[in-house]
Design brief:
Helix content is 42%, strand content 22%. It contains ten helices and 13 strands. The radius of gyration is 24 Å and the shape is elongated.
């Protein structure tokens, strides 16, 4: 069978808004038109895509299976239109880049500036995330290219290049943290402190493990786990947590005087990540 673009748009709008009325308003269509598109799609598939309730509409298991594929189809169609318009000289084109925070803070702005000099009509979207988020976004066609440390390629994703890059990764604390007033602080003194970190299997967590391993210590227990760089820096600056960050990631906070490296013997790694992998979705 073939999918009609209008049916997929109606399906995705209803899934997003939880009802035909709001979906119709978003699409600029009448409610009967959206209902007809949705019904035709369900008939073509031979499966109900939504559960109808008085409070709204929720995806069935069939709808949940279709949703990511429908988004991918719609985004690929939009990419094709943009590419053709660009080839005809009447489109801007869009590049969606995902990257880890340290690369965004240092490299991405300069790369985007150079790219826009060569392609002034291009529109660039930037997604910041840790490694597993970037791989998921790439596989789901939410971004076109990802730059990070340990990014795993598979049948959907291909490595297209690498960047030579050295991170200066360090233990960080608020500039007013009480530990700064204590003489002779060692890594062992930090084990029982409160730590805020990204999830396991990300580059900062591997750096945390390596810092304490080199000192013959077990990795501290992470009290708060977050993928949000904003939340991570707020926990360090305002709530007394310790963390491990690449220096470019907190350069603005260093200038503002809110976060600084905590200078303890062995509390930093230079050149921890020697190469950043660049991935895109494989053909």
């Amino acid at each position: 069978m073939t999918f009609e673009a209008g049916q997929l748009r109606a399906f995705l709008a209803v899934a997003e808004h939880g009802g035909v009325g709001r979906a119709a308003a978003d699409l600029g269509l009448t409610q009967p038109a959206v209902s007809r598109s949705l019904r035709r799609l369900e008939v073509a598939l031979g499966a109900p895509l939504f559960e109808r309730h008085s409070t709204g509409m929720r995806l069935t298991e069939y709808g949940r299976a279709l949703a990511p594929r429908a988004r991918a189809i719609e985004e690929e169609a939009q990419r094709a239109v943009e590419e053709i318009h660009t080839m005809q000289g009447r489109g801007r084109g869009t590049l969606r880049v995902g990257s880890v925070g340290s690369v965004i803070a240092h490299l991405v702005p300069r790369a985007v500036d150079a790219l826009l000099v060569r392609h002034p009509g291009l529109e660039v979207h930037i997604l910041e995330g840790v490694e597993d988020v970037l791989v998921g976004a790439l596989a789901a066609a939410e971004i076109d290219v990802a730059v990070g440390g340990e990014l795993d390629a598979d049948e959907r994703i291909a490595v297209v290049g690498s960047l030579r890059w050295q991170d200066h990764v360090t233990v960080v604390a608020a500039t007013g943290h009480p530990l700064r007033a204590e003489p002779g602080v060692e890594l062992a003194d930090l084990v029982d402190r409160r730590w805020a970190m990204p999830p396991a299997r990300t580059a900062p967590r591997r750096a945390l493990t390596e810092i304490f391993r080199r000192a013959g210590l077990d990795e501290p227990r992470t009290t708060v786990t977050t993928r949000s760089v904003v939340a991570l820096k707020a926990l360090v600056a305002d709530a007394g947590f310790l963390s491990v960050m690449p220096r470019p990631l907190f350069s603005a906070e260093r200038r503002a005087g809110t976060i600084e490296s905590l200078h303890v013997p062995g509390g930093c790694l230079y050149g921890f990540v020697k190469r950043r992998r660049v991935l895109d979705r494989g053909c």
